[in-house]
């Protein structure tokens, strides 16, 4: 006893750790649990907890929502403190918001995945403390929490049961034996049995995983105290009877053990066999009742050893203060019932059937599998669960989860399509409210991921493409017509004239170069003369005669100057004529017709580009038109633009050189002005008319040349750049046409039409850019034209050349006049003498000026050669341009042929697009279009990744589908739907890529469904084994075949009637219209195992009386009368023991107690009615008549 107490483990913790219901590993809910435990993403070995935030029936206010957000944030930031692995809140995304906020906005849920390493009690305490939110009703619930609350309810109920049982047994035994000592001894022996057996069972559980459940300890208490007290009553009653006959206590004890002990052993053996048979059960809850068998074995050992000890030690004091030890009293009730039963056996049996059949007929085995029914309504977890069922659907609090596990990743388009098809099929099952999966995370279809929506977009694009193709055909025809009307020959002629004018300009430039050389020679001579003049000035005072001798040189120089000016005048006239011809050619080349044609062609290509953009949106298949003509044209255009670019480069170089030369001419003019000033200082100043004429001519020449050549240089640079861009565009166009030509052989199907459109768009864009460059080139030519013609406020190059010629004419006139004035100059020499000294002092300046003039003239001569070379290059480039344009005329026909072919091709494409659109429209309206398709870009996107993480395992080999039913998840209807869902899932995946996948549905409803299947099947199996075991034991005890059948028939009748009556009482007084799922089983084993005792008591007394009389009727009536008191007392005690379960508040215990109590009451009346009646009908008629006569004689003697 002391060892049992010392070695007793922590019973409560063992029940929590090893006493939970265990379904077979093959059950679908257990398969699903294994998949969940290996899910990954930190969700393995976790339990789900739901935090409920509620504001009654009113919507949550803004302040309440903010406080809830703070609570949620607290949980997310304190995961380690609470053991949380994952948090799912309403504000995480749109899908969770839809699922976790009630429609009336009064309730919000927070889902937590909590590590199982901590106990449920500790976890519940921590999370409840953290979930408290000011101004909001907060509950923490979940299946594990509800189960833990049930364990606590059972433990508290057990404590009440133990106390009430002890008090009740003490009172009953005191009344039966009229002694306080007897109850104490009985309770002591049973209590010792209980403590020892409890220690043995719990150590077996701890060390060998012996079967255990929440009810093991409870039923050990009621069975041990119930039958233990019954056995004690039987033993002590026999002992009391033996004391009335024997004065020796030891002899009385021995006789009591021989008679009552044998009955106890037989009866206890049948109970032991019945509970031991439960060890063969498959269901853990049923198998856990085998612990009662261990307790019964210990009880029998203690009762047959410890009780005799007290009987021998106490003797008659065991019944103190009773002094009457007469024989045991008989039961008038059982005697009267058995007497009438044997007299009228048919009536007795008929009466039993009349009473029992209605209960048998009205009983339906509808059981309640809802764990909530076991709990008191005041428990917070149950309140929270009820709040969820009220404000959401009844299935929201405990959704079901369908798992699909394969040996390959499921995050691909093919498998996702099958998952979505299954999701849509599950939605069609009656009673299913919402279905959420990886393809429908919010519980509703995403229309953009279905072929129907995608085909609608395609067909709309096809319509636009058809319209665009019509526009393309029209544009191509128009472009072809415009090209046909274009007069490119005129442009070729203008280019030829431009080249001719440039040649003329080149000739004039050569003449200008010759004149510049002559001018340079004259300047050199002037420099020498200045030197001589300076020397003469120095000796002026001494040699005026020398000065006179030099007058002839002056006259010669003037003559030479006059001749040079005449030549310059002739050259400038030739330049003017050449520029005039150049201007006419440029005007011809920059006509408005070509520009208008270019703009119109650009506009048509823009329309073509827009149409191709519409075509790109759709797909189809047709033959691409022949584009070889366009490619040939693009190649020629590239070649021509390259040559034109080279010509522009040459022209730019020449004009730049010419501008530089004229800039030097301006410097020369400045020097001449200084010379004029120096001559003026000598006193022989030129007259105003001569000076003005010379200055105007030189200034006009310099200014005009610089301005016009600068403008021409800029225009040539722009022309070069534009032609360079045109070359680049042509190369780009040629490249795109090469790509387009390569693709044309491949684009034979409508699905690749968009690539053709894209390539066409790029090619057209390049063409438009090329046209822009060509337009820019034309504009450059117009700039050259403007430079030649001049603009407002600025003289043109042609006009400037004319001004040069006019100025030279004036200069010639001035030199003539200067020659006529030489005589006057000679006469004025005398007057020069007076200023000779002053002139000598300034002769250095004059020398420097003449040196600069000579240098400038030398540079002018050099630049004139560069100008000539530049004009030669320009002339060559223009000739090349002329040849290119002449070739372009022939290529334009090729381009027109290509445009015509393209126009015909667009018509064929349009026909193909129309056919494809008709087919796709039909497909869109068919059932085949309702197919899920996720593009690769969407599948790899950030948004879809969230869905994959939420509904697929860490390695993507498993996925889950969350199913919410619209009814109580523990109801019979919900469990039937689980079977339908499981069958539908397996059928839907047959013939698909997921045909070999493991499919299992988990969740509370699935667990309950598996529990129902397992419990129902194992109940029948276990009950059959138990009945067979008891039947064999009864055959051994009664030494009969029929009597065990009579006994078991009586017990089964009492069992079914008690179930029916208990159901009526439960509905009327407990508010529960159904029995809990385990009530029939526990009621069966308790009533059958314990009720058989009373039958064994009767039959053992019947056999005992067989030693004194051989009439079965008399023996059964006497046995009934004698044993009736014991059975009634035992039934009262056992009923009281089970009645002690009612205050526990646990529905299962209450209903089991009612079944046993009602069953015992029925047996009290059924046993003395059925068994004597059947025994009466068992024997032959002659024996019956003899028994009848002996029975009457016995009755007379008794009276």
Automatic annotation (TrEMBL):
GO terms for cellular component: plasma membrane. Its main location: membrane. InterPro entries: MMPL_dom, Mycobact_MmpL, xxxLxxG_rpt. The keyword Transmembrane applies. Residues 27-346, 895-1177 form the Membrane transport protein MMPL domain. Pfam families: MMPL. Keywords: Cell membrane, Membrane, Transmembrane, Transmembrane helix. It is a multi-pass membrane protein. SUPFAM superfamilies: Multidrug efflux transporter AcrB transmembrane domain (SSF82866). It comes from the Bacteria. The keyword S-adenosyl-L-methionine does not apply. It is found in: Cell membrane. The chain crosses the membrane at residues 161-177, 184-205, 217-236, 264-283, 289-314, 341-361, 1019-1038, 1045-1069, 1081-1100, 1121-1142, 1148-1175. Belongs to the resistance-nodulation-cell division (RND) (TC 2.A.6) family. MmpL subfamily. This is Transport protein. It comes from Liquorilactobacillus satsumensis DSM 16230 = JCM 12392.
């Amino acid at each position: 006893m002391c060892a049992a107490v010392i070695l007793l483990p922590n019973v409560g913790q063992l029940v929590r750790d090893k006493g939970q219901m265990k379904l077979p590993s093959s059950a679908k809910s257990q398969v699903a649990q294994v998949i969940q435990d290996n899910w990954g993403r930190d969700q393995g070995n976790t339990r789900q907890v739901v935090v409920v935030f509620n504001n009654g029936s009113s919507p949550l206010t803004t302040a309440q929502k903010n406080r809830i957000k703070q609570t949620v944030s607290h949980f997310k930031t304190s995961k380690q403190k609470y053991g949380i692995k994952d948090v799912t809140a309403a504000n995480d995304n749109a899908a969770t918001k839809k699922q976790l906020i009630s429609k009336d906005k009064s309730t919000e849920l927070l889902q937590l995945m909590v590590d199982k390493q901590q106990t449920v009690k500790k976890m519940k305490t921590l999370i409840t403390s953290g979930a408290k939110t000011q101004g909001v009703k907060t509950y923490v619930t979940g299946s594990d929490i509800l189960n833990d609350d049930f364990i606590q309810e059972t433990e508290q109920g057990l404590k009440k049961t133990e106390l009430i049982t002890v008090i009740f047994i003490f009172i009953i035994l005191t009344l039966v034996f009229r002694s306080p000592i007897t109850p104490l001894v009985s309770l002591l022996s049973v209590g010792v049995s209980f403590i020892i057996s409890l220690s043995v069972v719990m150590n077996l559980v701890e060390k060998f995983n012996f079967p255990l459940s929440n009810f093991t300890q409870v039923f050990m208490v009621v069975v041990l105290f119930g039958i233990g007290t019954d056995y004690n009553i039987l033993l002590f009653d026999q002992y009391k009877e033996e004391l009335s006959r024997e004065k020796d206590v030891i002899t009385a004890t021995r006789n009591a053990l021989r008679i009552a002990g044998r009955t106890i052993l037989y009866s206890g053996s049948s109970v032991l066999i019945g509970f031991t048979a439960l060890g063969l059960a498959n269901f853990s809850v049923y198998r856990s009742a085998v612990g009662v068998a261990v307790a019964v074995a210990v009880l029998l050992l203690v009762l047959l050893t410890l009780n005799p000890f007290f009987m021998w030690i106490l003797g008659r004091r065991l019944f103190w203060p009773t002094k009457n030890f007469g024989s045991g009293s008989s039961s008038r009730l059982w005697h009267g019932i058995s007497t009438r039963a044997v007299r009228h056996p048919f009536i007795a049996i008929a009466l039993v059937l009349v009473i029992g059949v209605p209960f048998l007929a009205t009983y339906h085995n509808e059981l309640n599998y809802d764990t909530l029914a076991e709990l008191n309504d005041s428990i917070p977890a149950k309140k929270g669960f009820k709040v969820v069922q009220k404000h959401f659907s009844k299935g929201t609090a405990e959704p079901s989860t369908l798992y699909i596990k394969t040996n390959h990743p499921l995050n691909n388009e093919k498998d996702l399509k099958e998952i979505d098809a299954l999701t849509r099929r599950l939605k069609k099952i009656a009673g299913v409210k919402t279905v959420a999966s990886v393809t429908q995370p919010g519980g509703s279809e995403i229309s953009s991921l279905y072929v129907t929506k995608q085909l609608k977009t395609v067909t709309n694009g096809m319509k636009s493409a058809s319209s665009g193709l019509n526009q393309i055909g029209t544009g191509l025809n128009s472009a072809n017509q415009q090209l046909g009307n274009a007069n490119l020959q005129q442009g070729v002629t203008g280019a030829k004239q431009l080249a001719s004018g440039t040649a003329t300009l080149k000739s004039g430039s050569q003449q200008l170069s010759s004149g510049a050389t002559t001018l340079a020679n004259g300047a050199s001579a002037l420099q020498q003369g200045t030197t001589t003049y300076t020397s003469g000035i120095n000796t002026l005072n001494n040699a005026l005669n020398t000065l006179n001798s030099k007058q002839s040189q002056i006259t010669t120089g003037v003559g030479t100057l006059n001749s040079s000016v005449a030549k310059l005048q002739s050259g400038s006239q030739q330049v003017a004529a050449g520029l005039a011809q150049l201007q006419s050619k440029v005007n011809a080349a920059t006509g408005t017709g070509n520009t208008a044609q270019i703009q119109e062609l650009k506009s048509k290509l823009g329309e073509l580009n827009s149409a191709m953009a519409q075509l790109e949106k759709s797909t189809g298949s047709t033959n691409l038109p022949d584009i070889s003509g366009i490619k040939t044209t693009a190649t020629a255009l590239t070649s021509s633009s390259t040559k034109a670019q080279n010509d522009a480069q040459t022209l730019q170089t020449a004009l730049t050189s010419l501008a530089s030369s004229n800039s030097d001419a301006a410097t020369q003019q400045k020097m001449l002005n200084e010379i004029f000033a120096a001559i003026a200082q000598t006193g022989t100043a030129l007259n105003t008319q001569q000076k003005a004429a010379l200055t105007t001519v030189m200034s006009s020449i310099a200014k005009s040349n610089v301005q016009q050549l600068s403008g021409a240089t800029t225009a040539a640079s722009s022309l070069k750049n534009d032609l360079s861009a045109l070359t680049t565009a042509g190369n780009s166009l040629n490249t795109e046409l090469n790509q387009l030509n390569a693709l044309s052989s491949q684009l034979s199907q409508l699905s690749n039409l968009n690539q053709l459109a894209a390539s066409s768009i790029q090619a057209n864009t390049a063409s438009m850019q090329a046209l822009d460059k060509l337009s820019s080139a034309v504009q450059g030519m117009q700039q050259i034209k403007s430079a030649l013609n001049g603009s407002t406020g600025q003289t043109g190059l042609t006009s400037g050349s004319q001004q040069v010629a006019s100025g030279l004419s004036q200069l010639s006139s001035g030199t003539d006049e200067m020659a006529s004035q030489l005589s006057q100059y000679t006469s004025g020499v005398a007057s020069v003498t007076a200023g000779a000294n002053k002139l000598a002092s300034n002769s250095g300046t004059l020398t420097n000026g003449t040196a600069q003039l000579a240098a400038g003239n030398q540079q002018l001569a050099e630049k004139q050669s560069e100008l000539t070379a530049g004009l030669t290059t320009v002339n060559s480039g223009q000739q090349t341009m002329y040849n290119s344009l002449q070739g372009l005329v022939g290529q334009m026909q090729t381009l027109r042929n290509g445009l015509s072919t393209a126009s015909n091709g667009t018509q064929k494409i349009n026909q193909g697009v129309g056919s494809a659109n008709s087919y796709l429209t039909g497909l869109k309206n068919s059932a085949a279009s309702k197919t899920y398709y996720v593009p690769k870009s969407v599948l790899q996107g950030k948004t879809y990744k969230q869905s994959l993480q939420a509904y697929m395992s860490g390695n993507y080999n498993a996925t889950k589908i969350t199913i919410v039913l619209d009814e109580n998840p523990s109801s019979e209807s919900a469990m039937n739907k689980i079977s339908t869902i499981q069958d539908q899932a397996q059928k839907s995946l047959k013939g698909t890529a997921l045909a070999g996948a493991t499919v299992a549905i988990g969740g509370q409803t699935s667990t309950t469904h598996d529990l129902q299947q397992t419990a129902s099947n194992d109940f029948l199996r276990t009950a059959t084994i138990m009945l067979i075991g008891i039947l064999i034991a009864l055959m051994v005890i009664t030494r009969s075949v029929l009597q065990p059948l009579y006994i078991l028939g009586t017990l089964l009748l009492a069992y079914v009637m008690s179930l029916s009556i208990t159901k009526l009482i439960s509905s009327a007084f407990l508010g529960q219209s159904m029995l809990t799922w385990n009530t029939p089983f526990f009621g069966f084993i308790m009533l059958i195992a314990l009720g058989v005792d009373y039958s064994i008591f009767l039959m053992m007394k019947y056999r005992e009386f067989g030693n004194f009389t051989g009439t079965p009727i008399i023996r059964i009536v006497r046995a009934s009368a004698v044993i009736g008191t014991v059975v009634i007392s035992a039934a009262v005690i056992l009923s009281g023991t089970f009645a002690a379960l009612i205050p526990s508040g646990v529905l299962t215990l209450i209903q089991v107690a009612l079944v046993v109590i009602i069953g015992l009451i029925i047996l009290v009346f059924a046993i003395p009615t059925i068994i004597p009646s059947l025994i009466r009908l068992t024997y032959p008629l002659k024996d019956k008549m003899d028994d009848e006569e002996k029975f009457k004689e016995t009755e007379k003697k008794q009276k």
